[in-house]
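Hello everyone,

My group is preparing for a crystallization screen and wants a predicted model to guide construct design. The compound we'll soak is magnesium ion. Before spending weeks at the bench, it would help to have a computed complex in hand. I've included the protein sequence and the ligand's SMILES below. Output in structure-token form would be ideal because that's what our pipeline reads.
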Amino acid sequence: MTAVAKLLDDPADAVTDALRGLAAVHPELSVDLTQHVVSRGDERRPGKVGLVSGGGSGHEPLHAGFVGLGMLDAAACGAVFTSPVPDQVLAATKAASSGGGVVHIVKNYTGDVLNFQMAAELADDEDIEVETVLVDDDVAVTDSLYTAGRRGTGGTLFVEKVLGAAAEKGLAVAEVAALGRDVVSRSRSFGVALSPCTTPGSDQPGFDLPAGEMELGIGIHGEPGRRRVPVPATGVAREVARTAVAAIDEDLPLAHQDLLVLVNGMGGTPLLELQVLAADVVAELDARGARVARALVGNYVTSLEMAGAMVSVCTTTPELLELWDAPVRTPALRWGV
Amino acid sequence: MTAVAKLLDDPADAVTDALRGLAAVHPELSVDLTQHVVSRGDERRPGKVGLVSGGGSGHEPLHAGFVGLGMLDAAACGAVFTSPVPDQVLAATKAASSGGGVVHIVKNYTGDVLNFQMAAELADDEDIEVETVLVDDDVAVTDSLYTAGRRGTGGTLFVEKVLGAAAEKGLAVAEVAALGRDVVSRSRSFGVALSPCTTPGSDQPGFDLPAGEMELGIGIHGEPGRRRVPVPATGVAREVARTAVAAIDEDLPLAHQDLLVLVNGMGGTPLLELQVLAADVVAELDARGARVARALVGNYVTSLEMAGAMVSVCTTTPELLELWDAPVRTPALRWGV
Amino acid sequence: MNLDAATALAWLRAFAGLVDERAGELTDLDRPIGDSDHGVNLQRGMHAVVAAFEQEAPDTAGAVLTKAGSTLVSTVGGASGPLFGTLLRRTGKALDGGDLASALRAGLDGVVKLGGAQVGDATLVDALTPAVEALEAGRSPFEAAEAAAEGAASTEPLVARKGRASYLGERGVGHRDPGAESVVLLFTALEQVAA
Amino acid sequence: MNLDAATALAWLRAFAGLVDERAGELTDLDRPIGDSDHGVNLQRGMHAVVAAFEQEAPDTAGAVLTKAGSTLVSTVGGASGPLFGTLLRRTGKALDGGDLASALRAGLDGVVKLGGAQVGDATLVDALTPAVEALEAGRSPFEAAEAAAEGAASTEPLVARKGRASYLGERGVGHRDPGAESVVLLFTALEQVAA
Ligand SMILES: Nc1ncnc2c1ncn2[C@@H]1O[C@H](COP(=O)(O)OP(=O)(O)O)[C@@H](O)[C@H]1O
Ligand SMILES: Nc1ncnc2c1ncn2[C@@H]1O[C@H](COP(=O)(O)OP(=O)(O)O)[C@@H](O)[C@H]1O
Ligand SMILES: [Mg+2]
Ligand SMILES: [Mg+2]
Ligand SMILES: [Mg+2]
Ligand SMILES: [Mg+2]
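Reply:
Good plan to model first. Here are the tokens for the complex, ready for your pipeline.
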């Protein structure tokens, strides 16, 4: 299967050029085209806790598309599928800092963890208090003290939205971080690929997927999943919904829970299909006695042009739902304002 | 090139299942799973002009994703790439009617035109006044009295948003329709495909696109475009931006205009690439002396999983911009509320 | 030629059968110049027509055709739903008591009024017109089907001026219009039941 | 073994050259078990190191390595940026005046402290540890490179416990760790300049 041509100019400049586009259509954001840092262009309340996330690019709209009122203060955008360097994270941290400390929301990958850790040390040198919230929501990976642990995937969206609202509300840095760890402990994800994706500039996809097979338990970096199974002749979406929800439910019992649900496209799957999957996911959750309190369907945490989807859930409380419903104004998530 | 498996259950039920998903995550909408009509579930002011659109499915979020406060009152969803039948459009018209008449926003395809026309006659039998706004914004097709004329594509979004605000504001049915014709006359689009798409249930894509070639001047139904050209080795996005903006500018001079701009993905192209294209489109408009007043980048008017993009513009006035900025609350477009 | 209710029913059932058999081909004709759905569209509609007649078969030929036409309008969508629907509905309404040829002329007029296509625009009108003319000239359904086939073939070298094929301009030349091919099936079905 | 500034510079330039030559291979090793970028990452970093030295070359071997390390940290990203960066930076800081073997031990300790990987977890530590041990035992850079190569090969049958390969579980068995292979290049470069 020959890869589809990419709508880029020079693959080496993909991230810079994409940020140029973001800047061109979002004058309310401040976009540093050298450091690849996107931050809020508006004034923030002195002492408001700053929220920073970041990671490799190729997951758009995550993270830069979630910068704005009620969500992130700044995002550091690494090369495609490569975590940003400490200098970038430090620049984002400074841009996010209003004197009340900064929370780093870090997806659990060795690269992200190490680079954010180094950045936190640099920030400490500049007297910015940094707390770190590690997101590791991917149930496809067996958790263990002796491994790199679970990956951070779709659940990152829940963390960024809820903490964004909490920071606007005036919580202190330690409180925001503690809340973040609580949201992480309530979030789980499971993803499936129907096609691989190709990093710009590469001439080969991240893995080969023969026609008629799908990868279960994928991450968001074009890497292969945990298992490869045949695509069923009918009921593909039902099978994906069942597999994902079962894997999540086994890890975090969902019965009687009020859930935030994200039916997330990986980048190449059209909304028609994501809506079909959403119907099946809701039916599957229903069958397990869980209730959908709020749901989002669309491309939020992607893997370039990969076809497939990820199901993420977060168990809620009335307080968490209130934070979820609070106004947000970012390029990719907006309501109430 | 083998097609990627679709995340569906039964291809024959794709539209019903997708609407089931929409209903599951948008309790504020009223979804008729038999007629495939989606309408606002909230109360509307008696006498408010009703706005109805519809067409074949496969273009999600268009149209059902644009139902809600400040935009459509109802959408009739046909089979994939097949306009709805008059009964569906009539049902949508009734759902949209609050006594002040209804405006049909119809993309200019023979099938849509004929089915909406028949529905308008049926509505007339039930004493609902219907005005029709025909959207024909696609500059790839040469316009002529003796042909089917230009297709309706991305510009439909501008019409639906602006008329939605006008109807909320209290304009009368003839005024809303006249405004709609004005917006159409100000809107132009041009699209490019980097891959074809395959209708659910079919085993073949709408056209074959050899590796290294792209289709210029495509529609939104998986049909081939006007011309096939090689994909340049570098500067693909620049070339697409230049071709699209030049075609538009030739038809509707853009210099000194304040524009609404839509950099629209066809369904299978990731946001990273659309942002790169957006940067190039803005640069190209800039070079032609046009100003971007507002812009959207994302998948709004799609063609299943087709890779590629469409550029749409609408020249504005301060009054039109005000209507554009007015609050909207739909699954796919939301701000101010 | 006069038509009784049983023959009218048999005609439409035969048409439905041919559409079933050839749906893939019709859709394939719609691929290079359209949106690859013509066979699927017509098949959906004719299935609904046959199902409607299983529920309740009208007792005049005119009512059979009228019912078939409105069922197509209500189930097909696209361009072909209103056009084939109007053809059958207008034909049915014009039929009662009278001759099929002149009723079909009324159907053809309805199609032209609705769609605005003339002979030579590369649409189903190019097959329908010569077929109706053949019947009007007193020729057999077999000859009408032949005339339709010639009309359908005549669309191949044309630059389409109506329907989706018109978007392609010169690139549409060399392709047969799918709707015209369906008209051939309609008259082939007539020939089968009239024989 | 002691290192002067010129040799340290030559070492890193030779390493950059090898990375350039083998970047495709390194990325290909990262494909089945990672995210297909290791060669690209290291190449970006080593280009930056070479460019930095063209601007201004430090005048002690320790400063050369320290500068290279911080440049890698600032330009590579991913897991390998902090890890290779720390390796060179700690080695450089420990080097001045002293012996390369014990300085590299400090670098290795820094990598283990930062990344938490032990020998047998199928990471670059599996190649780095035996290479450092070889130098400590007074063996030649050639022998250290051989030890690194053996260590890299030893990652193939392992189930990875650190880095991206750990996500694959059993499915990662049979693949060589790309970072370990880069360590082989680092010692091959040392062998080239020490010869
Ligand atoms: N204006 C028109 N007048 C007559 N026939 C038309 C017209 N437009 C389209 N057609 C016919 O409709 C056929 C296409 O039908 P179909 O594929 O079912 O609908 P759609 O084009 O909406 O997908 C064409 O092959 C052509 O024969
Ligand atoms: N915790 C760790 N300790 C030591 N080395 C590690 C660790 N995690 C990853 N590595 C090394 O990093 C290499 C991957 O580097 P690279 O592909 O550049 O980064 P990334 O995994 O972020 O894409 C692996 O092959 C492995 O040798
Ligand atoms: Mg990486
Ligand atoms: Mg159609
Ligand atoms: Mg068609
Ligand atoms: Mg890697």
